Amino acid sequence: MPGDGQPAEAIVSVRNKDTLSEFSVDWTLATADLLSAAAPWRTFRWYRGQKHYSGTYWSSTEQSHVIYESRLELARLLYADYDEAVRRIVAQPFLLKAKVGRRVCRHVPDFALLTKQGPLIVDVKPRARLSDPRIGATLDWTRQLVEGRGWCYEVWSEPPVTELSNVRFLAGFRQRRCFDVTLLDEVRDRDLSGRTLGEALSADFGRSRELVRSAVFHLVWNHYLTVDVAAPLTSSTMLMKGPHCD
Fold first, then answer.
1. What distance lies between CA 118 and its chain's CA centroid?
2. Are 190 and 203 in contact (CB under 8 A)?
3. Res 66 pLDDT > 60
4. Strand ranges in the chain using DSSP code E only, listed in sequence order
5. What are 68's strand-pairing partners?
6. I need a labelling partner for 246 at 20 to 30 A (CA). Which of 8, 64, 72, 193 fits?
7. Contact 111/86 with Cβ under 8 angstroms?
8. Are 25 and 65 part of one and the same domain?
9. Which residue, 136, 156, 176, sits at the end of a domain?
10. Distance (Å, rounded) from C-alpha 34 to C-alpha 16?
11. Is 2 part of any domain?
12. Which domain holds residue 233?
């Protein structure tokens, strides 16, 4: 029999995004398709004096808005949207209910990311709160169930400041409809790999520097070009070929 901290008899409840109907299945029967069709299990209200900074983020991956409950969740959304392996982003994807010891426990993860490798279930928690025994217990039994299902599980806390700043900056160039397709093709066809960012931004494309700058950063966001986002972006930052360059 499972020990006191081991989950058993787990049930997952999902709200369908098209019909908004709710249904529950045994956790072992949950599939990636089930997650892909899910609407947020819960949404957030906005009110004066609220402690959390909640809102919606327009995702280039989803081509629609995705909800978040805090600035830290927004940061994780930016990373997911920038990750070329992520194919779908579902916020508050399901309610997981399990018997843990003698208690019936419930938890709604923050995100389900559907990737090339399979589902990644994400809980976002400030690093300072990870020492809370109650939070730790919830994350622990959730991890056991998710990994036991053969999926990946992640507890995500504050990222490096420079890296987040760079990803947030690049996200400003994510909306393809804002860019001249002809210019994007011209920049993409020019071999900028191995050039510095300064060289790329000063290259002559017969357009204004501002338009060229935006096009280059849009291609970085979409992984036609890559940069080291862990280091400050400067004119000497090297551009390299990205996974989408071919």
1. 14
2. yes
3. yes
4. 7-16, 22-26, 38-39, 55-59, 64-68, 86-91, 95-100, 103-107, 111-115, 118-124, 152-156, 225-226, 240-241
5. 55
6. 64
7. no
8. yes
9. 156
10. 8
11. no
12. 161-241
The 10s digit of each residue's pLDDT in 166-191 is: 999 999 999 988 999 999 999 999 98
Q: What is the pLDDT of residue 204?
A: 94
Q: Per the domain annotation, does 142 fall within a domain? A: yes
Q: What is the pLDDT of residue 229?
A: 98
What pLDDT does residue 4 have? 61
Q: Specify whether 150 is located in the same domain as 166.
A: no
CB atoms within 10 A of CB 119: 23
User: Which of 167, 9, 172 lies closest to 101 in space, CA to CA?
Assistant: 9
Domain closes at, from 112, 134, 156: 156
Q: What distance, in Å, lies between the first and last C-alpha atoms of the chain?
A: 52
Residue 134's pLDDT band (cuts 50, 70, 90): very high
Place of tokens 């700058």: 213
- pLDDT tens for 190-246 read 989 999 999 999 999 999 999 999 999 999 999 999 999 999 999 999 999 998 765
Report angle CA 33, 141, 29 to the nearest 5 degrees.
25
Same domain (yes/no): 152, 165: no
146/224 same-domain check: no
Cβ(168)–Cβ(160) under 8 Å? Answer: no
SS3 of residue 238 by DSSP: strand
Is the CB of residue 27 less than 8 Å from the CB of residue 5? no
Tokens 């809370």 correspond to 132
| 192 and 218, same domain (yes or no) | yes
Amino acid at 31: T
Look at the chain and report how many structural domains it folds into.
2
What is the CATH number for 121? 3.40.1350.10
User: Same structural domain for residues 225 and 138?
Assistant: no
Same domain, 172 and 152: no
